[in-house]
Specification:
2 domains; EC 1.2.1.3; alpha/beta; ALDH7A1-like; five-stranded parallel β-sheet; 19% strand; 507 residues; binds nicotinamide-adenine-dinucleotide; Aldehyde Dehydrogenase, Chain A, domain 2; seven-stranded mixed β-sheet; Aldehyde Dehydrogenase, Chain A, domain 1
Length: 507
């Protein structure tokens, strides 16, 4: 491969992360940067046999790691957070190169890794069980939590590192080794993260066994080998609902545990009392940020008829003027789509929407850089009803806008799609807010008031319902998925009373 400025940037940045991997292995996996559409590296792929060997190594590591006290395990994650802080800029740049994010969003993703590490360090001293009242005299009942086993982490291209860390930081303090199968579109970020993790390992010392954290480069076949292995206790898979429909049943068939973090079709509702300026800014970031390639991207907007003519023209103006450009060379707010397939799916969805009476504003391709790069102007589409492409996730910056007159009707429509990830209401009316958050309100895993649908913090459990898969990871009590629970009853009396008053007297 001839050297280009972008390829030089890749090799220098990888080197700065400590990942001086061979980036030019002819015949391997081509890593294409969406920034220019050029191939920036050719990596060797792991085979299924190598995947099985990695699983065996991880299980060996589990036998040792599960016996290391949790606060000591937390120390490794603390060191990792220190190393991440040192590498924030370089890791952020690799994210920008591979996923096309702006520097601020690329580094924001690394910051999210640091945040979850800090959370996990505290958690390592708080893996609490319960003491439970028992009906039998002279007995004590309690719940204990133990390490679960090897965790297989499959991730999507659009968040190439933070979701790995949401899983890995918790898994490691919970006593579980991790095997990471990153998206085949973003393997460099994973290799760079692993190199940074290895720096923490070197400082940590001998308590950490070999094979505690491994990265497997490859496509679905490598993921499938993890999914099908009975030696992988938990599969945490982030990606499309299509992928989840394959992975979920396979893991269930072997009675494995699964966290599914799948697609969303997230919506906002703008009520008459909304702070319009705030709503405008929140919707703009939620719908256009990361070029519409976030699982939490706002894709549908229900606007009350009384404020429709106030907010929709302002949105159209923002869409027409937002800066689209190369994230490595400009301050543009909207970067490229990941590839031609993403562009084609956007074109198809917009044509379908127009056929159904939608009025499309924007959505044109912008000629930025070579032909192999796909930049688009975000599209806002005024729809007469929630039909056709509005009911599915198109992973591109399209916001469908619909008018409503009654909040109950808007809520019915809001919930009448497959995805159940994130949602938002813009209102200063207490009743409307509480209804949205209530049992008859949004049916999503994330329900926000006066902020957009994207940009979650690590402190809360992240995930969604229905076709989003039902998984939760990151904060709150998500750690429990990485441990097994045991209910213990201890008899310290001299009798053997049976529960429920049952008698069973033998001579
Ligand atoms: P994708 O489903 O194409 O790929 C995701 C990962 O799954 C990749 O690593 C891929 O190699 C792997 N994979 C694919 N088929 C597999 C199989 N049969 N067995 C095992 N592994 C398999 O998704 P993508 O295009 O990379 O990412 C975009 C999608 O991910 C969107 O739908 C988006 O909403 C979703 N996403 C969800 C979340 C969330 O937290 N809910 C976060 C980010 C992205």
């Amino acid at each position: 491969m001839p050297t280009t400025p972008l390829k030089t940037m890749v090799s220098e940045t990888m080197k700065n992360c400590g990942a001086a991997a061979k980036l030019d292995d002819e015949g391997g996996l081509a890593v294409i940067s969406p920034v220019t559409g050029e191939t920036v590296a050719q990596l060797p792929e792991h085979s299924v046999a190598e995947t099985h060997a990695a699983i065996a190594r991880a299980n060996e590591a589990f036998r040792k790691w599960r016996l290391i006290p949790a606060p000591r395990r937390g120390e490794l994650v603390r060191l990792f957070a220190e190393e991440l802080r040192k590498s924030k800029e370089n890791l952020g740049r690799i994210v920008s190169i591979e996923a096309g994010k702006s520097p601020s969003e690329g580094q924001g993703e690394v910051q999210e890794m640091i945040d979850i590490c800090d959370f996990a360090v505290g958690l390592s001293r708080q893996l609490y069980g319960l003491t439970i009242a028992t009906e039998r005299p002279g007995h004590r009942m309690m719940e204990t939590w133990h390490p679960l086993g090897v965790v297989g982490i499959i991730t999507a291209f659009n968040f190439p590192c933070a979701p790995w860390c949401w899983n890995a930081a918790l898994a490691l303090v919970c006593g579980d080794p991790v095997i990471w199968k990153p998206s085949e579109k973003t393997p460099l970020t994973a290799l760079a993260c692993q190199a940074v993790f290895e720096r923490a390992l070197a400082r940590f010392g001998d308590d950490a066994p070999d094979g505690l954290s491994q990265v497997l480069v490859g496509g679905p076949s490598v993921g499938e080998a993890l999914v099908e292995s009975e030696k992988v206790a938990l599969i945490s898979a982030t990606g499309s609902t299509r992928m989840g429909r394959i992975v979920g049943p396979k893991v269930a068939a072997r009675f494995g545990k699964c966290i599914l973090e799948l697609g969303g079709n997230n919506a906002g509702i703008v009520c008459p009392s909304a702070d319009m300026d705030m709503a405008l800014r929140a919707i703009a970031f939620g719908a256009m940020g990361t070029a519409g390639q976030r699982c939490t991207t706002m894709r549908r907007l229900f606007v009350h008829e009384s404020v429709y003519d106030q907010i929709v023209p302002a949105l159209k103006k923002a869409y027409a003027s937002v800066s689209v450009g190369n994230p490595l060379e400009t301050q543009a707010l909207v970067g490229p789509l990941i590839d031609k397939t993403a562009y084609d799916s956007m074109v198809t969805a917009l044509a379908e929407a127009a056929d159904l009476g939608g009025v499309v504003h924007g959505g044109e391709r912008e000629q930025i850089g070579p032909d192999s790069a796909y930049y688009v102007r975000p599209a806002i589409v005024e729809m007469p009803a929630q039909t056709g492409p509005v009911t599915r996730e198109t992973f591109a910056p399209i916001l469908y806008v619909m008018k409503y007159s009654d909040l109950d009707d808007a809520l019915e429509q809001h919930n009448d799609v497959g995805g159940g990830l994130s949602s938002a209401i813009f209102t200063t009316d207490l009743r409307e807010m509480e209804i949205f958050l209530s049992a008859k309100g949004s049916d999503c895993g994330i329900t926000n008031v006066n902020i957009g649908t994207s940009g979650a913090e690590i402190g809360g459990a992240f995930g969604g319902e229905k076709e989003t898969g039902g998984g939760r990871e990151s904060g709150s009590d998500a750690w429990r998925a990485y441990m097994r629970r045991a209910t213990n009853t201890i008899n310290y009396s001299t009798e053997l009373p049976l529960a429920q008053g049952v008698t069973f007297d033998i001579d």
